[in-house]
Structures are given as C-alpha cells and as structure tokens.
What we know:
The protein is mainly α. It has two domains: 1-37; 43-68. It has one helix spanning 2-37. The protein is elongated.
Amino acid sequence: MAVVLALVAAPVGMVLMFQLNLIRMRGELRIYLEQVAQTQRLPMCLNCGYDHQGLTSDVCPECGKPLPSPRNGSPDI
Length: 77
C-alpha cells in the first residue's frame, strides 16, 4: 500500500508544482503587459485577449471593457 501511495504521490506533486508555476508565470506576464500598456497601445484587450488591431473604438467589442490608451502620448501600434 505504501509503495502504491508513493507511486501516486510523486506524479501528483509534480503536476501540482507545474500548475503553480503556470499560475505564477501568467501573473508575471499580466503585470508586464499592464506596464507596457501604460506606454503604448497593445493590439489586444488585457481582459479577454481580443485582437483589436485596426479598431477605432476605445471599447473592446468582445467583453465591453474600455481599452487602455497610452499615457505618454506615444503613437498607436
């Protein structure tokens, strides 16, 4: 019984660590994208990921969230 538990616990632990790393990396990527969005207009909605290249509206048509505009006056991408 102990051998079976050890054989099951190791892969479960590895999967859990992998998922926690993915969550951490997703958070770091979101922080990076939000920082970039403060200086230039990103071609995607940070809320839903909708591609808004060529969009003239300042609201995402997919989720309805306002799209961030650049704060330092740099041109749109």
